[in-house]
Amino acid sequence: MAKKNNSSVKDIAYYQKKFWKVFFIGLAGIFLFFVFANFGLFGSMPSFDELENPDSNLATEIISSDGVVLGKFYRENRSPVTFDELPKHLVDALIATEDERFYEHSGIDGRRLFGAAVKLGADGGASTISQQLAKLLFHGEGSKFILFRLVQKVKEWIIATKLERQYTKNEIIALYLNRADFVNTAVGIKSAAKVYFGREPKDLSIEESALLVGMLKNPSLYNPTREKRKELVFNRRNTVLAQMVRNNFLEPEAKAQLEKKPIVLDFSPEGHLEGIATYFREYLRDYMKKWVKENKKPDGSEYNIYNDGLKIYTTIDSRMQKHAEDAVHEHLKNLQVEFFKAQKKNKNAPFYKINDDETEKLLKRAMKTSERWRLMKAQDKSEEDIIKSFDIKTDMRVFTWKGERDTIMTPMDSIRYYKHFLRSGMISMEPQTGHVKAWVGGINYKHFQYDHAGQGARQVGSTFKPFVYATAIEQLNMSPCDSIIDSPFTIPRGRHNVSADWTPRNSDGKYRGMINLKKALANSINTISAKLIDRTGPKAVIDLTHKLGVSAEIPEQVSICLGAVEITVQDMVAAFSTFANKGIYIKPQMITRIEDKNGNIIYENIPESHDVLSQDIAYAVVKLMEGVTEDGTGTRLRAGRAGFRTYDYKLDNPIAGKTGTTQNNSDGWFMGFVPNLCTGVWVGCEDRSARFNTTAMGQGATMALPIWGIYMDKCYKDKKLNVSKDPFERPENITVKVDCWKTVKDTLDFDQDLDEFNF
Same domain for 143 and 25? Predict the structure, then answer.
């Protein structure tokens, strides 16, 4: 019996010894596992510097002059916020839902970890906010392989404890919310608040904060924009509210009220194709790509506009930008209806005066420059197969002025369909500063990506004539009140290098006899422009035009006096602004400064300017152009007329301007300014052969002027903008006669531009 007892005691001692041996070996193994993980034997671990400055792809923000974020350049749409910018109820919701003992642990919640282990994760994971941040910062999604996942988990624990030593609790919360992905282009709480609710995080309501916190568990599953998941998202939001009550962050009575509220979104994804000032933002992207090549970081490396969190402070005013975009949409939506009507009986619609072969060539050229062609070429498709694909009907979503529409058509038909649409380019600028306040490059950036404001040069028609008149006033000492005979006129072959006799005609075939320059410009009389350039010579006009800021090459031909010159809207606005700015040219400015992510100024703009004309001559040209809106082709501004309809604007203040219409009505222009704002508008189709067939509809006074009028009316109603209604400042002791006798209004209501003459 004693032997058996001794044997039992020995067995117990043996197993105890075994147990403790295994226990300590296991403990040592776990310890070594953590040590090895810490020193990177199972994959790299973040260094001290990386922990202090975690890699975060911060979006570059484009900021308007009135402090509104117009858009961003990003690979991840992330803009950071500090803890102080977060509302208390958002932080409460986060802690209540994701980490109840956040302020009690040091990165790992032992109680929660033990509970998860006992229940085998049935009630969810045991990750703390610090652990989730470690995952977001340094290794992303967990591996599906158990062994690898175990290694990742251990690394999370180690990094979490290091983060707790490196940052305060509040900083960890801010870091976490800045890194969280909320889908739909929203990374970080600031982007999420803007994308889903159109506001800053500090302005979120309790139920909105609860919804966003609820998304953290599974952003795709709890995506509030998905109609099929509305009930799921609703219940998840209310679960967060319940957690807030459970943790004493919210009163039960308040929860009872909040959980009844429906989910109301103000969804506005911050993609590159959506939002305000899309064409300007794309112009800025190209500008910044060049800028980073020429302006390096202190260490010699290049700035990255997608990752470095730059802040680009622009001259654009978000209110004026919206007014400009709304004006373009309001008028072109109406004008497009008339354009479609005009094309109904045109077998080559929307093209005029080209035959079937020319039409086919034009469409094929468009086909070969299309995105579809490019993509199929990249897939090594044969040209024959690609061409065939353009005649196969397919599902597509197309642009209409009533919104995008799903339809079925061939890609070739879609090319012709889009050729019908009138486009527009518009820029508005302060003459005294060169600050561009609004930039509209087209009607819809998603569907029409060519920028007609800064990229596309088009014939300017009679809007070129003020340059001819300004040259005459400067070179020939003329004044707006001087008279010239409006009569048939020919520049003979050989003079000014004319290859054949050139006889410009007024479009109505009428001649008015003696007429002063103010009246002649007001009614855009061709013969007077021709006589003036004959006296000055085309080179003098070209030289002045270039000094005014026009960069385009201009042929040394007399026909330029009627506008046979291609110039961008941007250059035209800069040139006309010189007249408004007392003869001083200021280069258009789009950026005031650029800051890095820490708020350090890394670029500050210095305006470029030079003198072009004396104050007296500049003022004389202004008085000339005032005649256009008083008695000429611009009088529609005074009555809200657009030819085919009326608008609400009735502008009665001094306005200097000029309409322009090119040959065959392909381009309509209006350039106009008041003392502190100059705005240029162009309207036309992508192809010059796509146009209205009548001058009544195709002239600048019908196509472009109404946009200018609608825009200015909106600006005047927006009192905070302080757009001037004052008269232009008259120079003291002016030497040029500008006070002419009152003219009698001519019944002519359209431009005499490029009709019936040979170049």
Answer: no
